[in-house]
Amino acid sequence: MQDYSFDEYFERFPIAMAYVPWQHLCTLYENLDEALKCGTIFPELYKPFTGRRCVS
Asked: What are the residues whose beta carbons fall under 8 Å from the beta carbon of 35, sequence distance 6 or more?
């Protein structure tokens, strides 16, 4: 195993690569107070934190 400096090591790899599909957001919350509580106006994006994983 070859010893690399911090900079040399990270120059060998890309920072990140991602696949992000198009989102088709069609519905909106009608009640803006509810949207504010959810943090989004799109119900499809509302994924409450349950301590383990997102709920669909």
From this structure: 28, 29, 41
> What are the pLDDT tens digits along the chain (56 aa)?
567 677 777 777 777 888 888 888 889 999 999 999 999 999 988 988 777 766 65
Q: pTM of the full predicted structure? A: 0.49
Q: How far apart are CA 9 and CA 6, in angstroms?
A: 5
Enter the tokens of residue 9.
Answer: 């090591």
> Would you state the structure tokens that stand for residue 21, as one six-digit string?
């599909």
Would you say residue 10 lies in a domain? no
Domain count for the chain? 1
